[in-house]
Amino acid sequence: MNTLKTPICDLLNIEYPILQAGMGGVAFGPLAAAVSKAGGLGTIAAISPTPERVEQEIILARSLTDKPICVDIGFPLRAPKEKSDIELPELPGPLKQLHQEIEALGVEIKSADDQAMSIEDARTKLEICFRHGVEVIACALGTPKWVVEACHARGVKVISIVGRASHAQTAIRNGTDIVVVQGTEGGGHTGDIGLITLLAEVLEFSTVPVVAAGGIVNGSQIAGVLTQGAQGVWVGTRFIGSQESSVGPNYKQSLVEAENDSTIRSLLFDGLYVRQLQNRFTEVWEGHEAELQPYPIQRIVIAPSRFAAAAADLKDHQALPAGQGSGLIRDLPPAGELLHRLVDETVEALRKAQQRIQLKVA
Ligand SMILES: Cc1cc2nc3c(=O)[nH]c(=O)nc-3n(C[C@H](O)[C@H](O)[C@H](O)COP(=O)(O)O)c2cc1C
């Protein structure tokens, strides 16, 4: 195996500076363990699952590897304190349509409880991580100071995912150990600034290591961001297309078939901007944007159809969050093999860079 190291490898006690992103519904114990075992940092996504499920997944990952793991928890500023604070509207028209179409395919839509919206829920999950000695916590949707303090008091490292320079400043001020800047290319929640610009902007002031995310699926891209000054990468969509990710075969196949313009960034998933592949799930909202609800109401009203379609792995009717890099995904290897491939491609790209672009510097 090639060597590829940056200072975050020592900080996180990992071999390669490749971090598998937290991804709701995708990244559970098996994927996180496979990536960590192979020398990267594997992450369990803990926003949507119940606290009990999060605990089971941590125990599962621990049974598969003794390497450090990360758990990704959401601390959204706009979250109500309690779920009971939320009043729900009548089902928006596009969702009624989606329900009809899903049920016509023989899939039952049950009421679904989405765990993502209360700070109490996030706090409970954090305590579970502490109990199981999870080494790294990733903060999605905001990095409160109390979270950093609680982690540091236990020797736990904190990673903050941001999509804007101002959010990076806040996370650094609140004490984060690493900032992950996610460009608009990324899958899932994403801002509107391209990675190459956002990374340059945050590198100008960051006092902590910066990791790049958004659209990264191969080693030439990793070589590019390392050269720009990133100390590592946080890779999401590429790992959906691995054997250990927890989505169905249709979701994975959609990535292999995707082109780089197959994704859109819209508010329909949960009221915040999310990049996803276009299909019937996104199409039903076209022309009905006025019926979109604010976060977290949109997330709650969409949950029953989203979970039912995902459980049945319906290709056209399930939400398929994915980054622009999906157009470059052509196979579905085991995650550990994929991680090693990314390392080898990066080393190769760095070695060949001068030769390939016939660069002359003096
Ligand atoms: C299916 C999916 C689910 C995601 N869920 C989460 C999540 O629960 N928490 C989070 O911090 N980020 C989430 N993200 C964003 C990722 O952490 C990461 O920043 C993004 O995937 C990077 O872009 P890429 O997918 O192009 O590699 C999700 C992304 C995807 C594709």
Verbal overview:
The chain is built from 14 helices and eleven strands. An eight-stranded parallel beta sheet has the order 1-9-8-6-5-4-3-2. Strands 7-11-10 form a three-stranded antiparallel beta sheet, with no helix packed on it. By secondary structure, it is α/β, with parallel strands linked by helices. The longest helix is centred in the last third of the chain and has 23 residues, at 335-357. The protein has helices at 7-12, 29-37, 51-64, 93-104, 119-131, 145-153, 165-173, 195-205, 219-228, 237-240, 249-257, 280-283, 297-311, 335-357; strands at 18-20, 42-45, 69-74, 136-140, 157-162, 178-182, 188-189, 210-213, 232-235, 263-266, 274-277. It has two domains: 1-79 and 118-246 and 332-362, TIM Barrel (Alpha-Beta Barrel); 84-114 and 248-328, no CATH class. It is globular, with a radius of gyration of 20 Å. Bound molecules: flavin mononucleotide (FMN). The site of flavin mononucleotide has 29 residues, from strand 7, strand 9 and helix 10.
Main β-sheet, spatial strand arrangement:
1-9-8-6-5-4-3-2
The radius of gyration is 20 Å
- Give the strand content: 5-15%
**Helix/strand structural class:** alpha/beta
CATH class categorisation of the largest domain: Alpha Beta
Strand tally is 11
Based on Cα principal axes, name the global outline.
Answer: globular
Poorly predicted segments = none
What hetero molecules are in the model? flavin mononucleotide
Order of helices and strands: HEHEHEHHEHEHEEHEHEHHEEHHH
* Number of H- or I-type helical stretches: 14
Counting structural domains, the number is 2
**What is the assigned CATH homologous superfamily of the largest domain?**
Aldolase class I
Helix content: 40-55%
Distance between the termini: 32 Å
What is the second-level CATH architecture of the largest domain? Alpha-Beta Barrel
Largest sheet: 8 strands, parallel
Q: Which fold name fills CATH's third level, the topology of the largest domain?
A: TIM Barrel
